[in-house]
Amino acid sequence: MSDSYPFSSRTKHFVQPKQWASMRVAKEQEKKTGQRIIHFEKGDYQGPDFETPQHVLDATEKALRDGYVRYDPGPGLDELRKAIADRMARRGRPTVPEEVLVTAGAKHALTMNLLTFLQDGDEVIFPNPGYPPDEVWAKYTGAVIKHTPLTKPDWQFDVEALEKLITPKTKLLIINTPQRPNGDLVNNPEEIAEMLKRYPHVMVITDEIFSEVTFDKPHKSISAVEHLRDRVIVIDTFSKTWAMTGWRIGWTVAPKPVIEKLSIFLQDSITNVAAFIQKAAFTAMTGDQGWVENKLSLLKSKRDRMVAGLNTIDGIKCASPDGAFYAFADISGTGLTSQEFTDRLVERANVAVVAGTAFGSQGEGYVRITYACSDEDIDEGIKRMKEVDLS
Ligand SMILES: Cc1ncc(COP(=O)(O)O)c(C=O)c1O
């Protein structure tokens, strides 16, 4: 039926999001069999450990009552832009509110940036593995996608190999740190910045949505490198630091002319991010941060629990990720491909994970496992993984 509609040829590559394939399968299986699935596949917080703090709920309710329920076209509420600018300055990127755009999540910010910068024939470099939705929009524009393989097992940019991919047509380099799907920080932003001095035509989009979910080492932003500041665009969100995934609010920080252009895109597409949500986000960012600190130490203990558990399973090896809430386990010892492992695990053990290949060819031999869930689920999932025969 869908073939009979005159869709734009630019949408030819649209398929259901690959990173959510496991979630769709798990949901379907749960409906069909009625059996409980352990959801290690979700890129989200789950369960009572991560409920929205009361003061954020109270601020939302007050904002609704105070009338923040109308159109409010523009780049975002002044107070929120100022709070974000102050936070970015603490990250090492001096920022004024005019360099901030409040968006409907990081994904929205990424989409607007990619559609605003790229056009037919431009080249864009993504890490492999990386974050698939970015590529959907790059393809939509007609840009040519190149991948720079991250080194294994530490998942770092090989700057020499990256440099070889740069041509006069390269417009954008995409970095994400802490990285999806492996949770590791990019250790060498300064080295990447130094190399980029030789290519002043290349802009950088740095997706830092887990910037404040790191455990052992501090996050470093390439936007803090002064000589690069006028060509770096930062993406961040309330989804991960404040566990506000469903509230759909994030931001982008960039030089003023970029923000002015993106603000037009935003106003002409969604008008504005709901003002009462912006008020809630302001409270989350500027109010009591005890909840965030507590969440971080909870996540760290869950990471350790998950990684230790995974390393007791035959055929699986798992390094301890620097941040985010995913473990990226090496399952090559099982002799299965990532997809075979993923399919059999959900079918035979009711445990859902994501095949590493959903994030790029370099994800072969790995699966992504989320540990932002209850300790009981971690233990039960590990138990099922240990007991199941996947051969
Ligand atoms: C790398 C990356 N960027 C962006 C997003 C989307 O974030 P948001 O919820 O703010 O849209 C995600 C979601 O997990 C992600 O992994």
Description:
The chain is of the alpha/beta class and 391 residues long. The protein has two domains: 148 residues, Aspartate Aminotransferase, domain 1 (Alpha-Beta Complex); 232 residues, Type I PLP-dependent aspartate aminotransferase-like (Major domain) (Aspartate Aminotransferase, domain 2, 3-Layer(aba) Sandwich). 39% of the residues lie in helices and 14% in strands. The chain has 13 helices and twelve strands. It has a seven-stranded mixed β-sheet with strand order 2-8-7-6-5-3-4, with helices on both faces. It has a three-stranded antiparallel β-sheet with strand order 9-12-11. A two-stranded parallel sheet has the order 1-10. Strand 3, helix 5 and strand 4 form a beta-alpha-beta unit. Helix 1 packs parallel to helix 12, helix 2 packs antiparallel against helix 10 and helix 3 runs parallel beside helix 10. It starts with 20 loop residues before the first helix and ends with a helix. The mean pLDDT is 96. The structure holds pyridoxal-5'-phosphate (PLP).
Largest sheet composition: 7 strands, mixed
What percentage of residues falls in helices of 4 or more residues? 25-40%
Count of DSSP H/I helices: 13
What structural class results from the helix and strand content?
alpha/beta
Label the CATH architecture of the largest domain: 3-Layer(aba) Sandwich
Termini Cα gap: 39 Å
Please report the first level of CATH classification, the CATH class of the largest domain: Alpha Beta
